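Troubleshooting: if your tokenizer reports a length mismatch, compare your output against this known-good record of 419 residues.
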Amino acid sequence: MHEPRYKTSCVDRFLRYAQINTQSQPDSENFPSSEGQLVLQELLAEELRELGMSDVDLDPNGYLFATLPGTSGKRHVPVIGLLAHVDTTPDVDGRGVKPILHHDYQGQDITLPDGPGNVITLRDNPDLHDQIGHSIITGSGATLLGADDKAGIAEIIGAVEYLLAHPDIPHGQIRIGITPDQELAQGTRYFDVEKFGAYRAYTIDGQGLGQLQTESFSADMLHLEFVGVSAHPGYAKGRMINAIKLAADFVRRLPGDRMSPETTEDYQGYAHPYTMDGTAERARVKLLIRDFETAGLQDIEAEVEALARAVIAENPGSELEVKLEHSYRNMKEVLEEDPEVVERAEAAIRRAGLEVRHEPFRGGTDGSRLCFMGLPTPNLFAGQHNFHSNAEWVSTYDMDKAVEVIIELCREWEERAPG
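Known-good structure output:
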């Protein structure tokens, strides 16, 4: 069993938070998209007040901001922001989460009790090799766990809890921000950067121990609507053009050996059919378009649209409607011009006795957008593994180390500030 350098209630908090369903709902017209997000935000607001945080503010859009007053005697310590998101992915059921604490892990495959055949294997999870003797948290197998990103929330609050209990640790003012609907790429939709008031910020929303992400995908959403011709199916010969079949034909033509999530890694981009619905008259396909180079998005989008138009060309009388929606851009474009915010994170990771792991993030965080809104925001690890699946897991050791890195980050900014 490991002994954390900074003892907090981080793990206990996470076990409670995980049981509250905060799954975002992509078809909702509300913001936040689900009521459960507000339920947890209200709980978090109350906990922050009980800890003694000031300026705790949960606004009508579901953004929770709070302030940890500084303890430094220096006059010019920058205000640093710490961010996490409250929602979980709509891809996997978030109802009735039953977190399970597996004590003293010894390298075995982990069998989950709910759902036949749900096993977290050592073969498919090589990071488990580093967790021998530690405790692992999983769901029951029927749902996700929610470490993405409730682990990040718990770690931020754990660090705040410790700093409030130890005012002898000098640090500047820290701003806390918990955002809704990040999984829908809407986490910064109503984020008020000026109100947040941070000089630089960090999302706590990454994977393995020591990970620091300073580059992410650039992302678009491509909406394709196939318009057919409807007719009574009993009298449809020579008249009907079934839009569902048009959409299905298009999806079938998407490359299977490249440009798809199933066959890409590292810096390779993809086009991912995300949702599909419709009728014989109109059928819609939404695709996530991702590439680390913003210019590369246009190449993928052009190829995808050409495939769709080929289907239309082979079915005279049908039509195609195309809408492109920009989601976020690679944070690297901003962060490479601001080395200070990255250097402070690297130093904090090393102060916690860890090796810095720079890895591209094959996804996006709120930081991806905040960078372009004037708030440079790289991403730090929260310990998530297998996120967006019912095989999700997190290590209590990694969570405690994330708390340590956050505290060391606050100390690092204070120590390097002018007197």
